[in-house]
Write a structure and sequence with these properties.
With 247 residues, the protein is an all-alpha fold. The protein has eleven helices and no strands. Helix 3 packs across helix 8 and helix 8 runs antiparallel to helix 10. The longest helix has 36 residues.
């Protein structure tokens, strides 16, 4: 229908979806892991209680509703015109300096990334907290403390590696969930021309080659992310590398 190969069409739309999925996953991990560790250390305190309430409320808000709220508040809907309403770049983007291009890109991507990340905080934060709580109660932690090690050395030198295994195992699921579930809705609301919108338009038009092409790309990305997750296992805990164990 478009006089262009499916590969070229998918490659043309892919950067938008990759941008949303990658930035959302990175931000979710950068916020959730330190927050989950702090909640585990201060388990049962007021800090743990009100942060749990906040992230559960954030998890309960649908992504599309939060995206519309962001547009109304910060994109000139009814209140402030702080962020742009649509697109990934401004007019005259090519004429900007490298720093100007980076700032313009971050300016455009801020609201879509925030809208697609909001629901990922709760799962990751509570998973990190529970993993740390399970490890903190084990005997090797008490032994490390008895030897006089500082609390930070105990947490980040001993507990961190073991507790992070289950969090790293969830990396593919977090990335794929953001990439799949948020791409269509977020791209439509913020007028971003990505893979989610391409697949939806192809399904409506019954453009089967494009539908199969987008499904193939989604599956391929899922496999690649799973492989990266396995490699991160080894980096976090070298004991998983069975070749070194046998040697």
């Amino acid at each position: 229908f478009r006089s262009i190969s499916v590969v070229d069409l998918v490659l043309e739309k892919m950067p938008v979806s990759i941008t949303l999925g990658l930035w959302s996953t990175i931000i979710a991990y950068l916020v959730s892991i330190p927050l989950g560790i702090r909640k585990a250390v201060h388990d049962g305190t007021s800090f743990d209680t009100w942060t749990s309430a906040m992230i559960i409320v954030a998890y309960a808000i649908p992504g599309f509703l939060f995206a519309i709220l962001l547009l109304v508040l910060f994109a000139g809907g009814s209140y402030w015109q702080i962020f742009p309403l649509r697109g990934l770049t401004s007019e005259g983007f090519e004429n900007l300096s490298p720093i100007g291009k980076a700032l313009d890109y971050l300016w455009h991507i801020a609201l879509p990334v925030l809208a697609s990340t909001i629901s990922a905080f709760a799962t990751l934060t509570l998973l990190t907290k529970n993993s740390f709580l399970d490890e903190i109660k084990k005997h090797y932690v008490m032994t490390a403390r008895a030897k006089g090690l500082s609390e930070s050395r105990v947490l980040y030198g001993h507990v961190f590696r073991n507790a992070m295994l289950i969090v790293i195992a969830g990396f593919p699921a977090v990335f794929i969930s953001v990439f799949f579930s948020g791409s269509l809705i977020i791209e439509t609301i913020f007028s971003l021309d990505g893979l989610g919108r391409l697949g939806f338009e192809a399904a409506v038009a019954r453009d089967y080659p494009v539908i199969f092409g987008t499904l193939f790309i989604f599956g391929l990305i899922g496999l690649i992310v799973s492989i990266l997750s396995d490699l991160m296992y080894v980096l976090v805990d070298p004991r998983i590398d069975f070749e070194k164990r046998e040697g």
